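hiii, so i know i said id send this last week but things got crazy w the move. better late than never?? heres the sequnce for the chain we talked about at the cafe, plus the structure i predicted for it. fair warning i was half asleep when i ran it
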Amino acid sequence: MRVIICGAGQVGYNIAAYLSREDNDVTIIDVNPLIIAQINDDLDVNGIVGHGSSPDVLDQAGASDADIIIAVTHSDEINMVACQVAHSLFNVPKKIARVRDQHYLDPAWSNLFSRQHMPIDVIVSPEIEVARAISQRLSVPGTTNVIPLADGKVHFAGVTCNEKCPVVNTPLRQLTNLFPDLNVEVVAMVRGTQALLPDSDDQILIGDEVFFCVDTRHLRRALVAFGHEEKEARRLVIVGGGNIGYELVSLLVREQKDLRIKVIERDEDRAVYLSEQLERVVVLHGDGLDRDILEEADIEHAETLIAVTDDDEANILGSILAKQYGCERVITLVNKNVYMPLINHLGIDAVVSPRAITVSTIMQNVRRGRIKALHNIRDGFAEVIEAEASDTSTIVNTPIEELDLPQQIIIGAIVRKDLVIIPRPDTVIRAGDRVIILATQGQARRIERMFSVQVDLM
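okay and structure toks below
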């Protein structure tokens, strides 16, 4: 597959890294020659210096033979024009653009991105995607990560196991005996800085982050089994009223009527704007690191603080202060990789990475085969993939134990109509099944082949 990526920032770099590891022909374009030089040294890609919207540059990048263009520069307008040029001059089949400015996404202008006007097949809005990810974590308290799959019939969830966890120091093979009617499968663990794909003899230790697939009807019971019985938060404090904060509050107000939300915003003009635009929300002008402002927000009685400013350090410090002042739970937005290993040691309950979420959303639209959903876990350690088996898929009608799957591919759940199956060695996948898989990065291409049908290979 030939892919052109416009923009070599964190998102563009990570997409290029994923695709190049899977033997795709990747070209990445950026105006910064130093970044392109570094990428040419680091990755097996073709780096080109120039503007991604320039016809000459796209021609040099091989747009006439490209399968996909992914435009993720820092400019919405360049991203949109790059897709337009790729379509009009080079007939690139699939065009993906990141668009941050929500005015472009107003339903009133929905016709803008049609094939007759500005033909973009997939528009990715990081602000909307991050707001959804935070909302999902709020809806299932106690989780570090939670993803609904197979039309909501299965959840993939992560939890941190503390001293209250009743299955600490218990081999995973004993979970079935302890909870015989609980449809749950542990598929990964993170211990300190080490990510593990556990076998049946591995034990859960205090401090481990455990990832599991579970029948949605058993989700709450599974959380209890891992030591989490938190109630859904009703009193929220959100620090940061930028685009992400605004989208999050708007989403929460639309979906839940009984929330008490307070927003802390440092910029006075922005605070005034938020107070005018957001209904049933208290907006406070001030710094989320200021004790007086936190006390005015009644942080002591808040059930969750969500820090979503554009400053990682402020988000982390504000979250730590909130916990010290009595807030029950904190969710923290972090962009920089360097802080990730520190998070568990700082008492932060859940971290949201806009870069990882954006990469996951884009990669979901790049994958071939019958891939229905794809989510990046722990900054690229693994991917959770939902795929549909067809009559010609190589994995159907054969017991799982005979599929000769590598250890790096774990089948976590199978959905057959309304039935959720936690797989055992003798389980057989049938055509039409939705299969939930956790796989390390290097196995993604193999999964595509497993679920490919003839039409996908043409």
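btw The two ends are 12 Å apart (CA to CA). thought thatd interest u
miss u guys!!
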